[in-house]
């Protein structure tokens, strides 16, 4: 069975980047988006959802001036037009599921733990480490 990848939907990371505005290309609400997703993270989420995908690292979103590269092509429909995964019938539903999975992605969990492990060793609000003026 030959699949035509040009018929697959394209997902740019900027579509679900909470740091971007709607005018800059974000397509989800900020509450549904995640911070600075990458094409490889989106690919990992598609693999978790058992969807065929391919990462195109050399491609960039036309309105993105930051130069973030990469996009993901995902197969949502079979050759006959039926959905590959009945739970994901459209691009919007795919973006919502990927953005939800992104918060549980292994690279994001490690970042969160690193920030949470720091402890306050100084005493008081002054930031002087408990030293008092003489």
From TrEMBL:
Q: Where in the cell is it found?
A: Cytoplasm; Nucleus, Nucleolus
Annotated stretches, region: Disordered: 106-134
Q: Name one GO molecular function term.
A: 7S RNA binding
Q: Name one GO biological process term.
A: SRP-dependent cotranslational protein targeting to membrane, signal sequence recognition
Gene3D superfamilies listed in its UniProt record: Signal recognition particle, SRP19-like subunit (3.30.56.30)
InterPro entries (UniProt xref): Signal_recog_particle_SRP19, SRP19-like_sf
Q: Which GO terms describe its cellular component?
A: nucleolus; signal recognition particle, endoplasmic reticulum targeting
Q: Where in the sequence is the signal peptide annotated? A: none
Which UniProt keywords are present, listed alphabetically? Cytoplasm, Nucleus, Ribonucleoprotein, RNA-binding, Signal recognition particle
UniProt lists the family membership as follows: Belongs to the SRP19 family.
Subunit and partners: Component of a signal recognition particle complex that consists of a 7SL RNA molecule of 300 nucleotides and six protein subunits: SRP72, SRP68, SRP54, SRP19, SRP14 and SRP9.
Q: What does this protein's UniProt record list under function? A: Component of the signal recognition particle (SRP) complex, a ribonucleoprotein complex that mediates the cotranslational targeting of secretory and membrane proteins to the endoplasmic reticulum (ER). Binds directly to 7SL RNA. Mediates binding of SRP54 to the SRP complex.
Q: What's this protein's name?
A: Signal recognition particle 19 kDa protein
